[in-house]
Amino acid sequence: MSDSIIIVDDEPDIAELFPPAISAAGPPGHLRHALRRSGEEALNCWGRDRAGVIVILSDINMPGMDGLQLLGKSRSASPICRS
Questions:
Q1: pTM of the full structure
Q2: 9 inside domain
Q3: Contact in structure between 19 and 33 (CB atoms under 8 Å)
Q4: What is the pLDDT of residues 27-38, one digit of tens each?
Q5: Does the residue 83 lie in any domain?
Q6: Measured between alpha carbons, how far is 63 from 4 in angstroms, rounded to an integer?
Q7: How far apart, in whole angstroms, are the C-alpha atoms of residue 72 and residue 30?
Q8: For all residues of the chain together, what is the average pLDDT?
Q9: What is the residue range of 32's domain?
Q10: How many domains does the chain have?
Q11: CATH number for the domain including 24?
Q12: By C-alpha distance, which of 28, 18, 14 is closest to 60?
């Protein structure tokens, strides 16, 4: 199983900067990534594949659920999450 990184940002230009760096880190196929445009979308993605997610990179200022709210909800949903 490969590890996953969830990138959360409402600005497409910012979120698209990360995939090339993720692809360059480690052997091919080792790290997967998912781009999400909101905290709600990130939680839904994380809920489907929680075991494989090793990092959530999130913008702080987003409409709807902001990055700090996402952090709080992820910590509540998983006791192993640490900030």
A1: 0.77
A2: yes
A3: yes
A4: 777 788 888 999
A5: no
A6: 24
A7: 28
A8: 80
A9: 3-77
A10: 1
A11: 3.40.50.2300
A12: 14
